[in-house]
Amino acid sequence: MSTDRNREFAGKTVLVTGAGKGIGLATARLMTERGAVVIALSRSKADLDALCAETGCRTIVADLGDANATRAAAQQAQPVDLLVNCAGIVELEPFLDTTVETFDRIMAVNVRAAMIVAQACARSMISRGAGGAIVNVSSVAAQVGTPLHAAYCASKAALDALTRVMAVELGVHGIRVNTVNPVVTLTPMAEKVWSEPEKSGPMLARIPLQRFVQPEEVARTIAYLLGSDSSMVNGVSLAVDGGFQAG
Ligand code: NAD
């Protein structure tokens, strides 16, 4: 029997954090197109209202910097079959001036929240015995030291490490866990960091494909890792970087 690849996720529920903007928004749209029921989680109600009007997705407003709010929101979303931990923040500070407050804020959203949300989802997946798939949205910053990004790079390296442990422990339950690791992707976050040509020029010069990533390109890679085409892919960090890390 042939399956309709365009509706690959029909009958599946996917929770997407950070779905209000950028990569999370593109992922929520793509997963809706491919048949999934999307639960979109973000801190901005206005963003989620717009997405809901467009796609009919379910929405949850929560601040993932708050551990208790994160746990409550993750439980509210259950049961889900698939999870995309996409919410993330960046703040630029030289290493010598990186404050404890900045470090803690970035680690809370980029790593701790991903763990809390994944725990709730994995518990539900295990109790239903149907397996599942989780994608954590990391970055090339997990592997490459980028000036002014000390806390951010640390958070993404931690997310990759967390992902490997999750892949090992949850794999036995049929739950696959992977990361996508994009280079600069044209989203509101990237505008904050890379809008000045003095910064974007040298970065672009290091990308063999000579352009930045579109959010939809990351979304399609996420969909690959969530779907049956990647059924034996578990515990990998998959670069979406036009060859940046190969150089
Ligand atoms: P973005 O800033 O454009 O969107 C981030 C989304 O996450 C927004 O909807 C925002 O409301 C939500 N969010 C942020 N903090 C939150 C919080 N405390 N609680 C709830 N929601 C919160 O970012 P983006 O560029 O789409 O990035 C998405 C992910 O991709 C992040 O994890 C980021 O680190 C990663 N990434 C981005 C790039 C890039 O160049 N844009 C490159 C590599 C990796």
UniProtKB/TrEMBL annotation:
Residues 12-183 form the Ketoreductase domain. GO terms for biological process: glucose metabolic process; xylulose metabolic process. InterPro entries: KR_dom, L-xylulose/Carbonyl_redctase, NAD(P)-bd_dom_sf, Sc_DH/Rdtase_CS, SDR_fam. SUPFAM superfamilies: NAD(P)-binding Rossmann-fold domains. The keyword Transferase does not apply. Belongs to the short-chain dehydrogenases/reductases (SDR) family. GO terms for molecular function: carbonyl reductase (NADPH) activity; L-xylulose reductase (NADPH) activity. This is Short-chain dehydrogenase. Homotetramer. Keywords: NADP. Pfam families: adh_short_C2. The keyword NADP applies. PROSITE patterns: ADH_SHORT (PS00061). PANTHER family: D-ERYTHRULOSE REDUCTASE, D-ERYTHRULOSE REDUCTASE-RELATED.
